[in-house]
Amino acid sequence: MTRQESLVMKGIAILLMLWLHLFNMQTPLYSPLFYIGDNPVERYLTCLTKPVGFFCFLSGYGMHVLYEKGKDKHRWSRIGKLYIHWWIILSIYIIVYQLITSTHIEIINHPTTHAFNYETIIKNITAFDTSWYHPGWFLFPYMCLSLFAFNLFELTARLKVWQILLFFWILGLMVGVFITRNSDFVYSHRLVANIASFISLMPAFMFGAMAHKTKIIVKMQCKTRRNALMWCVLIVFLIFVCYICLFGEASIQQYLLYCFLHHLCQTRLLHVCFRQKLL
User: Fold this and answer.
1) How far apart are CA 6 and CA 10, in angstroms?
2) Residue 161 half-sphere exposure toward CB, CA atoms < 13 A
3) How far apart are CA 196 and CA 144, in angstroms?
4) CA nearest neighbour of 197 among 144, 152, 155
5) Rounded CA gap, 243 and 36, in Å?
6) pLDDT band with cut points at 50, 70 and 90 for residue 120
7) Which residues of 150-172 are buried (b: 16+ CB within 10 A; e: fewer)?
8) What whole-number distance in Å separates Cα of residue 127 and Cα of residue 139?
9) Is the distance from CB of 105 to CB of 94 less than 8 angstroms?
10) pLDDT reported for residue 278
11) pLDDT at residue 108 above 50?
């Protein structure tokens, strides 16, 4: 994957994020034109948008490139740039929110009177607790993941690729089940929520790292070039993923299949598009 391809894929991930937040639920802001059963078509398509996991996949790929080069000179400057962008976004959001509502910032799980105490300010500035702007929940866990990426690669260097993928797959599954069954406890304790989020981001991150290690994307590009059958298979997979996400029971088998299809479809489809110069 070249730097240019990586930038294009980040742009696609941003579009996926916009689509997810715009159409994840039906609102009076728009009127769906097409339905499949009781669900609008755009809601089915949100099942294919996992922007945070997508970004982690790309980040894992890029961090493993640096790992093989044996250096990461911009580790702290990268974190600093993330924080600068976070502070800008947070400032704009607070100012706009205050202008619109003329009230205190609404704190999730906290009284509004505690909106600007010292503890809340520090937690939001560091992104440890993103109660002022909840969509930034992944920022602090992601920064920790970025800082400890080389340590993860060192710890797993002696393992085979399939062992690494299986381990982090199961780890992510276990954390997902834990969060689902103990959501009240997890989200009422910020430290626990950050640790759980940190672990839940690992599978996509390590998938990206292993994609670079095995050079599987380059191999996929060669095999899928001008392959009509692969396009048909991809379309069927995408439809099946939507079905699992919307109608399937939350069983382990379906979750594993969904993760596999999701990563396979997004990675292969996008890189086929690059080879065919469709993007």
Assistant:
1) 6
2) 10
3) 12
4) 144
5) 11
6) confident
7) bebbeebeeeeeeebbeebbeeb
8) 6
9) yes
10) 44
11) no
Amino acid of residue 68: E
Q: Which residues contact 109 (CB under 8 A, 6 or more apart)?
A: 131, 187, 188
Query: From CA 261, how far away is CA 162, in angstroms rounded?
Result: 16
CB atoms within 10 A of CB 79: 15
Give the count of beta carbons closer than 10 Å to the beta carbon of residue 209.
27
Digit-coded pLDDT (tens) for 228-271:
676 677 677 666 666 665 554 444 444 444 455 555 555 555 55
Residues 171 and 118: their CA atoms lie apart, in Å, by 35
Both tokens of 32, joined, read 């769906």
Residue 158 pLDDT level (bands cut at 50, 70, 90): confident
Instruction: Spell out the SS3 assignment of the chain.
Output: CCHHHHHHHHHHHHHHHHHHHHHCCCCCCCCCCCEECCEEHHHHHHCCCCHHHHHHHHHHHHHHHHHHHCCCCCHHHHHHHHHHHHHHHHHHHHHHHHHHHCCCCCCCCCCHHHCCCHHHHHHHHCCCCCCCCHHHCCHHHHHHHHHCHHHHHHHCCCCCHHHHHHHHHHHHHHHHHHHHHCHHHHHHCHHHHHHHHHHHHHHHHHHHHHHHHHCHHHHHHHHHCCCHHHHHHHHHHHHHHHHHHHHCCCCHHHHHHHHHHHHHHHHHHHHHHHHCCCC
